[in-house]
Amino acid sequence: xxxTPPNTLQYRFDGPEDAPVLILAPSLGTTWHMWxxxxxxxxxxxxxxRFDLPGHGGxxxxxxxxxxxxxxxxxxxxxxxxxxxxxxxGCAFGxxxxxxxALRHPERVASLALxxxxxxxxxxxxxxQRGVIVRTNGLDPIARSSPDRWxxxxxxxxxxxxxxxxxxxVRTTDPGCYIAACEALAAxxxxxxxxxxxxxxxxxxxxxxQVTGPAEARTLVAGIPDARLAVVPGxxxxxxxxxxxxxxxxxxxxFSTAWQPSYDSGTGHTIVPGIPxxxxxxxxxxxPQPVAIAEIAPAPVPEPAQVMGRPDPYDAGLxxxxxxxxxxxxxxxxxxxxDFSGDFQELVTRYxxxxxWDRPGLDxxxxxxxxxxxxxxxxxxxxxxxxxxxxxxxxxxxxxxxxVLLQIAVHCGVPTASSAFKVxxxxxxxxxxxxx
Length: 436
Hints:
By secondary structure, the protein is of the alpha/beta class. About 50% of the residues lie in helices and about 10% in strands. It has helices at about 40, 65-80, 95-105, 125-135, 140-150, 155-160, 160-170, 175-185, 215-225, 240, 245-255, 315-325, 325-335, 340-355, 365-375, 380-395, 400-410, 415-430, and strands at about 10-15, 20-25, 45-50, 85-90, 110-115, 200-205, 225-230, 260-265, 270, 290-295. The strands form 2 sheets. It has an 8-stranded mixed sheet, with helices on both faces. A two-stranded antiparallel ribbon has the order 8-9. Strand 2 (about 20-25), helix 1 and strand 3 form a beta-alpha-beta unit. The two termini are about 35 Å apart.
């Protein structure tokens, strides 16, 4: 166990101190206990390192604003422990961290396993909406619906103790850290970069995973040059919990046979670590589906950036516009643009969002307060609804939005505030009602 300053993570070790380090990383809403069934066998050959996400499992609640931030905290933790090179297996959010490490710090990663992972997790709107739900209603609605996302219906019905454990795991997570993790996943998109991953990679997925299923797994395998696919039958999103023996066997096979040696740039020599000698997994009661070699697609070649003079704020503006208003709203606005209105949409994106909303002087909460006031004062109630949604995404609570509207009543008039309340009330009801 560990004492945890803000820039590091709560962790634990299992296994021989002189063995190669193998990291097991959790999914959003879980703790390191999701790997309990894998540890006894893995710890026979590896020094197993597990960690908790911020605010999960009793870990200090220091929210991580991005996947790269979390990866940096993990590396800082490992640096403090003297761990330079490691194998890495991560589930869902933990898989995103693994991708980040393999892309930005390839010299640290000897071998990679991505479980229930994706180069992009759903849509940004879905995760920002989840943040709005948690900010308004707490984690209980998310906790109660977690078994439906994580397990097959048969497993959940047959294992009520595990199902309740899953609910309590989410329910006891720090809401602020959960929301920050949702924001991190909303911004995570490495579809154009996965061709640069150069370590041996196992992509493992449950056949019945409805969150990040076989389609997302095949996208990873097609993009990563040295990747193999394993589909575990009869498992959903938390496949290490639902099919522990199959996952253990697959991890043992992968990390025993695909451990890339490190390279010392000073001497020019390849350094061969102490790799476990066992290369054939033990026979389990739940044999995994055979690992299949997937067809590999060529890695995308990014076009070189061309910057002439002052950078065009359009791309930055489009990013901010999507983050604030949501992909669905922006896609709808852009799709409706034609030869007559297209220039106006470019102007709005480039200057309203790229120049003004992207300025550092105010945070987005403050900008939302100003936008709500200005739109109501100007009588632009057709635009007010989208900015009420934006305010919720930017971190304002319904109570805070109510206070803004009361302020509008004082300074802009009761009739104006009355119309604004009607618009806001409908939007807040739609956005904050939990979906079961």
